[in-house]
Specification:
Distance between the termini: 42 Å
Largest sheet: 3 strands, mixed
Oligomer: single chain
Bound molecules: zinc ion
Strand order of the largest sheet: 1-3-2
Number of domains: 1
Strand content: under 5%
Shape: globular
Length: 284
């Protein structure tokens, strides 16, 4: 999202929200804390702006995911290659087994992992743990297990950090303004919040993550993969491979995830920090 809300307004809203018990308990899910995840080796600890309740965002996402699954089934493109599905689920489950490090509640999310036959290079994890990997990642990019773990770990991290809810919240304020917040705070959000919910699934796909959100997903994803026993160096080779593919038909993933030199440099710099976790995971 290009147009961010202004800082003072953001501060005011955070103050209002934390001062209001109705919203704090349901929307933050973590009492007295304005960040969605626990700090760890990768150092992701930014305070976040959240307005829409987590339960609502999770519900919208589950609906959108079910629709995608239904569509794919109709087109005969859902989980058509059992070996590929097994591979993606094995990797994803190893990553999911580590999410408790960042947030214990995510261990009990209703995680789902599916593969859609589609030549595009893309993958996503919707809020609440709904993962989809497009087969182009395997068929065209020829991603190794470590590289797939890097992509899926990155996407899982977006979900753990609730970046979807964060950007939906920002868009909500832009669209409906402070008046909507007022009705939210008094507990009579009514029509406004319903409209907000309606645009939720569209927003998830339409609004790209901001640069800071991308950086966080890179960092946390790298740690998640290392803890699951996947080589952190693969994040770098993954982006390099993506970039090489970019010369032909640009991978869809790159439109929202630019493989910039700084991104690759950051991953290279962080890899040694999480390598001990990878070594330890390999031994056990
Ligand atoms: Zn991302």
């Amino acid at each position: 999202m290009k147009k961010m809300i202004k800082k003072p307004i953001q501060k005011l809203m955070i103050a209002l929200i934390t001062a209001t018990s109705i919203v704090t308990a349901s929307s933050l899910g973590l009492s007295g804390c304005a960040t969605t995840t626990k700090d760890s080796v990768s150092g992701v600890n930014r305070s976040q702006f959240m307005l829409l309740p987590a339960s609502q965002v999770t519900k919208m996402s589950a609906q959108a995911y079910t629709e995608t699954i239904t569509e794919a089934k109709k087109k005969n493109t859902l989980n058509v290659d059992p070996a590929q599905l097994d591979r993606v689920r094995t990797i994803s489950n190893r990553l999911i087994a580590q999410v408790g490090v960042f947030r214990p509640d995510a261990v009990n999310w209703k995680w789902e992992v599916n593969v859609e036959k589609n030549d595009q290079l893309n993958a996503y994890c919707m809020p609440g743990g709904k993962i989809m990997v497009l087969s182009g990642m395997m068929d065209k990019l020829k991603a190794t297990d470590d590289e797939l773990a890097a992509v899926i770990g990155h996407e899982i991290s977006h979900a753990l950090r609730e970046h979807g809810r964060e950007r939906m919240s920002q868009a909500y304020v832009q669209q409906f303004g402070l008046q909507a917040l007022a009705s939210f705070v008094t507990g009579s959000a009514g029509a406004a919040i319903t409209q907000g919910a309606g645009m939720g699934s569209q927003l998830f796909f339409a609004l790209p993550n901001g640069r800071e959100q991308e950086r966080e997903a890179d960092k946390m994803g790298l740690e998640l993969a290392a803890r699951a026993g996947y080589n952190p160096d693969a994040a770098v080779t993954l982006w390099q491979k993506m970039e090489a593919m970019n010369k032909g038909a640009p991978p869809e993933f790159l439109s929202t995830h630019p493989a910039s030199a700084s991104r690759i440099a950051d991953l290279k710099a962080l890899a040694p920090k999480v390598r001990p976790l990878y070594e330890a995971a390999k031994k056990s």
